[in-house]
Amino acid sequence: MLSVNQVEKSYKKGGLFSGERQKVLSNISFECKQGECLGIIGESGSGKSTLGRLLLGIEKPDHGTILFEGKSVDDRKARLGNISAVFQDYTSSINPFYTVEQAMMEPLKLQGMVRQEAQIKIDLLLYQVGLNPSYRTKYPHELSGGEAQRVCIARAVSTEPKCIVLDEAISSLDGSVQIQVLELLKSLREIYNIGYIFITHDIQAASYICDRVMIIRNGQIEEMVKIEQLKDVQSAYARKLLQMIIT
Amino acid sequence: MKLFKLIWKDKLAAISLSIIAVTIIAGIFAPLFAPHDPAEVNMELRFAPSSWEYLLGNDHLGRCILSRLIYGIRPSVLWVFVALAISVGIGAILGFVAGYFRGKTDAFVMRVCDVMLSFPGYVMILAVIGILGVGLENILIAFVIMKWAWFARIIRTSVMQYAEADYVKFSKALGVSNIKIIMKHIVPVALPDVAVISSSSFGSMILQLSGFSFLGLGIQAPNAEWGMMLNEAREVMFSRPEIMLAPGLTIIIVVSAINFLSDSLQVALDPKLMTSKHKLQGQTVASSAKLQGKEVA
Hints:
The complex is a heterodimer of chains A (247) and B (297).
Chain A: E1 2-12, E2 21-32, E3 37-41, H1 48-55, E4 63-68, E5 71-72, H2 76-79, E6 83-86, H3 100-110, H4 115-128, H5 145-157, E7 163-167, H6 175-192, E8 195-200, H7 203-209, E9 212-217, E10 220-226, H8 236-246
Parallel strand pairs in A: 3-8, 3-9, 6-7, 7-8
Antiparallel strand pairs in A: 1-2, 1-4, 4-5, 9-10
Chain B: H1 2-9, H2 11-28, H3 30-33, H4 65-101, H5 103-118, H6 121-132, H7 136-163, H8 166-174, H9 178-214, H10 226-234, H11 242-269, H12 277-296
């Protein structure tokens, strides 16, 4: 469904006239099948969030291609309603001037849904993420972190996309809420058969939800393993990462 | 409408809004409101004190001061507003484009702004008046030319912080077009900032126009303009100081009203600072919904 081919990305360093560039990603290639949950694990600065932005088509890779069902993700039309996202910072994930209802209406309207239909859908979605319909009229600053992140998740699944990129979606929540949200993601996956790309630095969370994990280091893929074989990782770096959790 | 109600609750803002509304209406329909012809000279009534026929008295040519104040609203407030709207409009378009798209567009627009801003403002306005000639419209043109860069810069900065937000990223990921994102997400969020900076510079522009008219570069006699009325009063400053009061106080009141209104606009536009009633109603609905849920369970 999503295929990434030899993607490279670098950013300009320094001022207007400096030609120096810092390489963030190099030679990244992988595939993600329909309904699969792929974890992307790496330390901070490893380029995993940049990869997330490239997958969402917000930024373009310098080289290589990212294809979604055969079409480039740069193309707005190819993404429309098929790819969605949940970000780390729940405080800025919802427009502060929008109520929960208005925020959730945006993707639905984009799909050309009629208002009445969308209203029913919003109620259903809120119910599915464990919020009651009274949340509709609330503004983001009136929500707690977990609630805001649930609204973001509800908004992300509202168009029934084939793929959701979760960029550190649970990292800024506290322990018990993290598990609730992970459970929620699992149950939503069963309902809608969505593929997740789960970007995180937390191996435990990734192993809880993912089918496959990709370990990334300094902008390069270090290793890619099925979750059942996570303990048999080959590369030294991946072993070290695992070791740190076990001890 | 909700916005209007919110402003109405704030007493100071309500007073400011009424003052501005009355000023604008009086300015537009000046012939209906003014008791006399503003240019009618009546030498018998030179420096006459206020009377029932001439409420604010008469000036050095025996003209009705109240009528002149009312006719003066047009150049002093309404035309300044037009000039402000044009320069904020240009600045906003360029600022939104530069702040949202970043990169080369941003660099180009900002360097042009830097060049514009590196000219000393007053001197450039004087130069433009020198080239185009004395007159109200030329001052307004000079205002537009000199001010847009400043607005573009400030709006760009405020747009930049919002363009980075995750909700914009989310919309981009969904496949919403750039224009739609700017219109739906960035314009409403940046609007309070734009409203505040433009209203505060509205006040300073009225003062500047009055200043130029005071210097004799703005509107020409016998037309009425607040700054020029002050200038005329200056000639008799020591013998008849009270003549200065009417135009001086009018300028102060209108400018303060605009500044107070802009302050409360910022509060009223921001949902975080809103303390409206419908919020409380929402809470009661929520709690009753919870209760119902318990009953069912």
